[in-house]
Amino acid sequence: MTTTNEALRQWVDETAALTKPDRIHWCDGSDAEYAGLVRLMLERGDLLPLNAETYPGCHLHRSDPTDVARVEHLTFVCTPDREEAGPNNNWMAPADAHRRMDGLFAGCMRGRTLYVIPYCMGPIDSPYARCGVEITDSPYVVANMKLMTRMGRAALQRIEREGRFVRGLHSTGDLNPERRFIMHFPHELLIQSVGSGYGGNALLGKKCHALRIASWQARQEGWLAEHMLILELESPAGEKHYLAAAFPSACGKTNLAMLIPPVTMPGWKVRTLGDDIAWLHFDADGVLRAINPESGYFGVVPGTNARTNRNAFDMIRRDTIFTNVAVNAENEPWWEDKDAQQPVIDWRGQPYSPGKGPAAHPNSRFTVAARQNPSYSPLADDPAGVPISAIIFGGRRRELAPLVYQARDWRHGVLIGASVASETTAAATGEVGVTRRDPMAMKPFCGYHFGDYWGHWLAMGGRSTRLPQIFHVNWFRQDRNGRFLWPGFGDNLRVLRWIVDRCAGRVGANETPIGFLPHARDLDLQGLTVEPAVLDSLLAVDAASWRQEMQSIGDYFAGFGERVPAGLSEEHRRVLTALG
Ligand code: SAT
Ligand code: MN
Asked: Is 251 among the catalytic positions?
C-alpha cells in the first residue's frame, strides 16, 4: 500500500531515510492486521496472554516501569514566539526542538518496522472530523490506535480527498527518561514524540492531536477542542439531553459517561458518546454540537467493579488490552478494588507482595473499542454530532466546592471553568493529591496561552443566543475523617437530573455570589440516606472561604499577565465584590 497524497508519501520517505527502519507497513485498519500485530507481540513478549476462557481476546502489556504515565515536564509546545505557548506550557524554540528530535530519531528504527497509521478523529463523514497520520515503531501503539480511533483505509481515503492532515512521528527510542520528549509544533501541524510507549505520550491521536494541536486549530477556526466526556441523558418521559463534562484525568469521566441509574430512579437512561474528548462547533442555528473524535476508551482500571462501573466492568471482559495491571492465580487481570480474589503477579511481573505497593499500577489502563460498551450510543457515529444542553466542569476537591452550582451566564461559566482546581492523580508523573489549578481540565492539554484560550471561550459566547448552561460539580467532598460526603457513581444521576431540570427551566434555585445552588427539596434523593447536616454542608457556600478562593484565583490569573481577557477579570471582580 502507498498513497496518492504526495506530501504524505514524501514525509514517509523522509522519515524512513532519517529513522532507517528495516520495513515499512501501511496500516489498513483491518481485523486481520490487528490479529497479526497481536501474534507478533505475543511472540516478542510485548503482550502476554490472559485467561482465554474468562477474558477472551484480552492481553496484558507491561510497560517499562519508568514509563507509566504522561510526562508533563517533558512535554513542549514549540511556537516561534514563546508568548504564544504561554506560562501554562513548557516551551522550546522550534529550531532547537527540531535539532534535538532529529538527533534522537536518527537511525532509531534500525531493526524495527515503521508503521504508517492514517486515522480520522471523528466520524469519517463528519465535517467536524479531522485526520492525522501517526508514524510509529511500536506495534503496541498501532494496536491501541486500532481500538481507539477510526484508522486505516477509510481515513487514508479521506486524507487523499482533503489533502490535509496532522503529522505525528513517534518512536519508543530506548525508553530512557533522559531521552524522552513530547514536542508539539502547532504552526506545522506536527507532533514528535520519543522515548515513551505510554498512553498520552505515544497514542498521538489522543491528547497530542485531539487536544493540544486541535485546541490551537479550534481557536483559529472558531470551535472548541475540550477534555470532556459526552453523554445522553433520557428521562422516563423520553426527554433527551446531551451533556459535556470536563474533569481532570482520573477524576471519573469514564464512570460518569457510563453511569448506571440507581434502582430508585427507574426509567432514567444514560448512554455514552465519549469519555475523554469533545470537539464542539456551532451549527447554522447557533446550537453547540459535540462530536467525540475517538472511537475507543483508554480508561483507568483500578477501582472498576460491578458497583462503581458495571458497564466498564462488563465491557473489558473481552477484546481488551490491559496495561500494567496485576494477574491472579487464574491468569485473569486483577486490580485494586476489583473483587475479593488475590493478586499473584504484580504489574511489574513480579510475585505480589503487599509491602511493595499496589498490585496494579494506580494508572493502569484498559484499551477497548467503544462499541463494546453496553451503554454505547450509536449517535457517537453521527456526523452531525449532538446538541449540548449543559457544560459541566469539575475537579477533585476535599473542601469548599459544593456538590453542584450553576453559572449565571456564559461569561460567569467561563470564569468557573477557568477557576477549576483539582487534586493531582496518578495519570501524570509527580506528586499525587496536591491541589493545583486546572482550568477547564485543560492544564496539560491546551496548546497555547491560557489567556488567549479564555478569550476564545468568551468570544464563543458572543456567537450564539442558544448557548448551553454551564455548571460546576464536585463529587469528592470529604468530612474531617476523610470520608466522602456524597456516594458518587450512579447517585450522581441525582445531580444530572437537577442540571437538566435547570436547563428546561423546571426548578428554581438559591442565588448565591458563586452561582445558583439547588434548593435541597429539588434534589431527587429518593432511596438515598443523606443526613440533613451532610446535605447542608454539600450545598453550603462559606463566604469567607470563597473570598480567599477568589483571591487565590485572582493571583493565579495574574500569572498570565496582559493576555487575560478583560471580560474574565471583570467577572472575577464582580464575584469577589458580591462575596462582600
Ligand atoms: O495517558 S492519557 O493522556 O492518554 C490519559 C489521561 O491522562 O487522561
Ligand atoms: Mn483524559
From this structure: yes
Question: Scanning the structure block, which residue is given the C-alpha cell 435541597?
Answer: 520
Q: Which CATH superfamily is domain 6-47+74-222 in?
A: Phosphoenolpyruvate Carboxykinase, domain 1 (3.40.449.10)
- Name the residue among 125, 375, 379 with its Cα closest to residue 242: 379
| Alpha-carbon span 324 to 333, nearest angstrom | 9
* Predicted confidence (pLDDT) per residue in 108-122, tens digit: 999 999 999 999 999
Contact, 391 vs 414, CB < 8 A? no
Q: Which of 432, 418, 373 is nearest to 559 (CA)?
A: 418
Q: Work out the widest C-alpha separation in the chain, in whole angstroms.
A: 69
* DSSP-derived 3-state class of residue 498: helix
Report every protein residue that has its C-beta within 5 angstroms of ion ligand 2: 249, 276
pLDDT averaged over every residue in the chain = 97
C-alpha cell at 423: 487534586
In CATH, which superfamily holds the domain spanning 296-372?
Phosphoenolpyruvate Carboxykinase, domain 2 (2.170.8.10)
Residue 2 has pLDDT above 90, yes or no: no
**Residue 110 in grid coordinates:** 534500525
Model pTM? 0.98
Region for 104 from its dihedrals, namely left if φ exceeds 0, alpha if ψ lies in -120 to 50, beta otherwise: alpha
What's the rounded mean pLDDT across residues 248-264?
Answer: 95
Q: Which long-range contacts (CB under 8 A, 24 or more apart) does 348-353 make?
A: 348/62, 348/65, 349/62, 352/326
Rg of the chain over all Cα atoms, to the nearest angstrom: 23
CATH number for the region 389-578 comes to 3.90.228.20
Could you give the residue ranges of the DSSP H alpha helices within 31-170?
A: 31-44, 82-85, 94-105, 139-148, 153-162
Ligand nearest to the CA of 276: 2
Residue range(s) in the chain whose domain bears CATH number 3.90.228.20: 389-578
CA of 525 to the centre of ligand 2 (A): 30
Residues of the chain within CATH 2.170.8.10 domain(s) are 296-372
Distance 249 CA to ligand 1 centre (A): 6
- Residues having CB within 6 Å of any atom of ligand 1: 70, 199-200, 206-207, 249, 298, 427
Task: Please name the residue that has the C-alpha cell 481476546.
Answer: 57
